[in-house]
Amino acid sequence: MSTLPVVFSAFQTRKMDLLSNKWIINLIFCCFFIGVSCNSVENKIYVHLNYTIPCVRLLNATHQIGCQSSLSGDVGVLHVLESEANLDWVLKTGPNPPYMVILDSTLFTRSIMMKLKTGSSRVAGVVVVAPSSNPSEGFSPHTTCPNENSGVYSESYDPALAHCNVTVWNPLGNGLSYEEYDFPMFSLKDDNDTQAIKQCYYNHNHVVNGSSPQYPLCAMQLYSHMSAVTDTATCMRRNGINFSLNPETVCDPLGDFNVLASTRPLNYTDKGHKTGESVVIAAARLDSRSFFFDIAPGAESAASGFVTLLAAAHALRNATQEAEPNRTILYAFFQGETFDYIGSSRLVYDMENKQFPLDLDNVHSVLEIGQVGLHGESKLWVHTDPVSRRNSSVNEEVEKLIKNLNSSALNLNFSLQEPSFSQPLPPSSLQRFLRARPIPGVVIQNHNSAFTNKYYESMYDNAEYLNMSYPPNLTPEEQLEYITDAAKALTEAATIVARALYTQAGGSDPIQLQNINVDSQMVTQMLYGFLVKSNNSWFQQMVPSDFAIHLRDRPTNFYVGVTQQHSEPTFLVQYLLANLTGTTVNITQDNCQNQREGEDDKESKHIYSYMWVQGAAPPNSTERVAFCVRSTVRLSKALSPAFDLKEYTSKDYSTWTESRWKSIKGRIFLVASHELEMLTLGVGVAVLIASLMLTYIISSKADILFSSGREPTAATY
Amino acid sequence: LTLCWFFYLAIGHHIPIYTQCLILVISNKESAAQQKGLLIFGVVLSVLLQETFRFAYYKLLKKANEGLLTLSQEETMPISIRQLAYVSGLGFGFMSGAFSVVNILADSAGPGTVGIHGDSQHYFLSSAFMTMAIILLHMFWGVVFFDACEKQRWWAVGAVVISHLLVSCLTFQNPEYVASLVPTYVILFLMGVWAFYSAGGSLKNLKLCLTCKDKDLLLANHRPR
Fold first, then answer.
1. Which terminus of chain B has a smaller tally of CB atoms within 10 A, N or C?
2. What sign for the dihedral angle of Cα B209, B210, B211, B215?
3. So what's the ipTM on this one?
4. Average pLDDT of the segment spanning B25-52
5. Contact B44/B10 with Cβ under 8 angstroms?
6. A680 touching B, CB under 8 A?
7. Residue among A21, A22, A31, A33 with most chain B CBs within 10 A, to mutate
């Protein structure tokens, strides 16, 4: 064809510029139209997963735990696992590896997961279908000895008590959360989408009698690539590298804030030892976790404890204001205790380094409330540390504290008992205080030796487990007010704690003691708000308006999260504590939000904190009546000292970090056989080569082929 | 210079394609039956628009060719109307093919293939063959159309339009790919033969080429290109 050589040389003509601009503009237009209207091809191929909960990577000084996918997602042929014996298909005999294994929750056990882990070249990922009700035999992905190396029991303290030699606290623990998996793991709800996925498997992949399934096969792709690797020291070093204009952070330390309040105001600018001050610390834990990311219902492991303490703090408000006992009570709600005691280790560190208005010498005793959810019995157990009790003065104080507790329980249908044999403390914040110096303290739990919590740090530790059952056909408002059995039990426990604290703090008025009563209405409202739905009318009244939009229609998530992200329970407990232990003051919104009582008040902000809360709407109007609450509630930073000291391989402090990731998603589709793909490619290449050759041949013979019927004017060929 | 014509033609073919996609965009919001009706209407309109543009280009090119003749120093026309027909048809075919296939190609570059909602998994293969048929068809239609316009044979022009409509409507048979591809290839073959004859080919020439007796003829009729 004569124009072909002309074509190639004509690329240099100056007319190209003008035309190429037009070409580019038109191409952009046509791409826009195509993109807008004709993307139905993607819908024919992929079905995107709506609800995906991944398992993410966490790192500490020595290990990385959790799951990792490859950068462009992991693709695997679906396989619904029927039993443990069926694992053979996935690991050995199946003809189309790698497989994406779908597990029912009954099959999510340690033995199956370990086998999948060792055979991970043939496993592309695992999907766990979460059941709608809790498994009856219990499930705990945490280790058998929680916080083994960060508590007080080490070889130097007492080797006989270290590493859970005496009591294994979490016997049901299978340690799955602390293993490392190099394939992605997602959790799906048992709903219509999951049924569709299983149906796809049954239609395309399922075989009987050991034959091979026919292509096309149903497959799934999961994306959950984690940026951080190896351990905290490596990822923190990589955070600091400045190769480009935007340095990329790969991991963030876990942490949040502790919530602290005191019965007598403390001056937060006056740090270090405070002479003459003797403080009783009432502590509870705020956080929990589960195997999957951002799911941590933590009903018995966290909520039962801090709700009891909140209720006790409220009951003590009047007693501690009218007739002040001589010791101050410091209410401490620690965040991050699940991950090697982030919150309590930070508070002890601050106290030791004069970063806190109190010192460890000011601490008289510690009363900690652990897991106190009761399932029918009316008995609580008081745990103490046998090693510190070898010191006679410490022992004396501990005995006094236990006596106070017992006397508070006398008039109620409750009994408090010490374990019958010498046993170390269960995992609790008190252990971090004891690491610093021997302080008298007790931990109140609902178990004698091992945990009675069947679902410790798992996604099943929810309202259903705490026996928070509501009669059917109640509206959410009615459910909020209904007093469940769980609430009644916790009310009793809170009353005991409150009265014991009053006596421990030196209060001696028996009439005041009798008047300390916990309101069970409030306890049930708190339990509802934290474990069923945080967006309810009671919580709405007590939070400032800019936080009210963050209240959700589902249970609170107690995962501590990274330091930059503020977790919901910290704020909720802060506002609740402020309303329950503080007083209403009559100052303007402007003054309240600027932390002062008057125009030239510069001192109050060091002692008190002021909160402008929404309030409730009066019965005959819809406008909320807001007011100012003055309280002694403070947030203190709960970031492990290892990150301030930059000791990322520290054995003394928590070094937990969470990896960052770009996208977490999943989709299902059909995959064609490799042979069909190669055939398509081969046919295409063959057609291309054939057409090029044909064009060349025809153009070289064009004279001859098209010679007849020449037009007189067209003289050139 | 030929390249310029080529590009002008290619760009101009965008316009009927725009309307086609526009109509698809609008029709996405309607119900299924209305969508089908709107789609048919859109396709018919687009085909008629393309053929109208083809005729417009024929007129434009003829005028431009004559103008070039007066401007140029040679006595003979720089490019014959047959070459123009070929280039124009190829341009139309190229753009049409690109529009139909680029979107599908982009989505085929993932791990999945069509079929999870029950569609046939030979979607990509049959789209590719259909696109090839359409490109070749446009080329043949271009040659036949221009030739018919030169010789004022309006029935041939009508035949081109009707066969274009026929091929476009055949695509409604998808997903029965056999039912849409086989008739399309039959029409392709017939149009190819017609274009060959109207471009000046004949059975005698073909036999000459195939049996390699053409070398003597070439030497005899050799002239500088």
1. C
2. positive
3. 0.81
4. 78
5. no
6. yes
7. A33
Residue A665 DSSP code: E
Segment (H or E) for B118:
none
Q: Record the tokens describing residue A385, joined without a space.
A: 């540390």
Q: Determine, for residues B14 and A38 on separate chains, whether the beta-carbon distance falls below 8 Å.
A: no
Residue B140, both tokens: 């043949």
Please, which pLDDT band fits residue B78 given cuts at 50, 70 and 90?
low
pLDDT tens-digit profile of A210-240? 778 888 899 999 999 999 999 999 999 999 7
User: A216 CA to chain B: closest CA distance, Å?
Assistant: 8
Report the residue of chain B nearest A680, measured CA to CA. B125
Tell whether A217 is within 8 A of chain B (Cβ): no
Distance from CA of B166 to the nearest CA of A (A): 23
pLDDT of residue B61: 83
Give the chain B residue nearest A8 (alpha carbons): B3
Whether the Cβ atoms of residue A610 and residue A585 lie closer than 8 Å to each other: yes
pLDDT of residue A708: 62
- Of A329, A332, A336, give the one whose Cα is nearest residue A298: A336
Q: Do residues B157 and B148 make contact, with C-beta atoms less than 8 angstroms apart? A: yes
Could you tell me the CA-to-CA distances from A273 to A270, A278, A356, A678 in Å, in that order?
Answer: 9, 11, 8, 77
A133 vs A104: CA distance, rounded Å:
13
Q: Tell me the C-alpha distance between A624 and A622, whole Å.
A: 6
Q: Spell out which residues of chain B touch residue A24, defining contact as CB-CB under 8 Å.
A: none
Q: Residue A283 carries which side chain, given as an amino acid letter?
A: A
Q: Which residue type, as a one-letter code, is found at position A497?
A: V
Q: A42-139+174-227+664-675: which CATH topology? A: Glucose Oxidase; domain 1 (3.50.30)
Q: Is residue A180 classed as helix, strand or coil in its secondary structure?
A: strand
pLDDT tens sequence across A62-100: 999 999 999 999 999 999 999 999 999 999 988 888 999
Looking at residue B24, what is its pLDDT?
62
pLDDT of res. A2? 39
pLDDT band at A118; cut points 50, 70, 90:
very high
Count of CB atoms within 10 A of residue A472's CB? 5
Dihedral in degrees, nearest 10, Cα atoms A520, A521, A524, A526: -110
Rg over CA atoms, chain A? 33
Give which of A681, A706, A713 to mutate to test B binding, by max B Cβ within 10 Å: A706
pLDDT recorded at residue A31: 44
Q: Which fold has domain A256-582+632-639?
A: Aminopeptidase (3.40.630)
Q: Sorting pLDDT into bands at 50, 70 and 90, what band is A427?
A: very high
Q: Which residues of B touch A703 (CB under 8 A)?
A: 218, 221
The SS3 assignment for A706 reads coil
Q: To the nearest whole number, what is the mean pLDDT of chain A?
A: 89
Q: Percent of chain A having pLDDT more than 90?
A: 72
Instruction: Assign B20 a pLDDT band (cuts: 50, 70, 90).
Output: low
Q: Which residues contact B222 (CB under 8 A, 6 or more apart)?
A: none
Backbone angles phi, psi at A643, to 5 degrees: -80, -30
What are the domain boundaries of chain A? Answer: 42-139+174-227+664-675, 256-582+632-639, 584-629
Q: Are B180 and B173 in contact (CB under 8 A)?
A: yes
Q: Which residues have C-beta within 8 Å of that of residue A192, sequence separation ≥ 6?
A: none
d(CA A331, CA A267): 16
* Res A491: pLDDT: 94
The closest of A259, A460, A492 to A372, measured between CA atoms, is A492
DSSP string, A237-284: HHHT--SSSSPPP-EEEBEEEEEEEESS---TTS-S--TT--EEEEEE
Place of tokens 């501990």: A398
Task: Please give the backbone phi and psi of residue A416, each rounded to the nearest 5 degrees, phi first.
Answer: -120, 135
In this prediction, residue B200 carries a pLDDT of 78
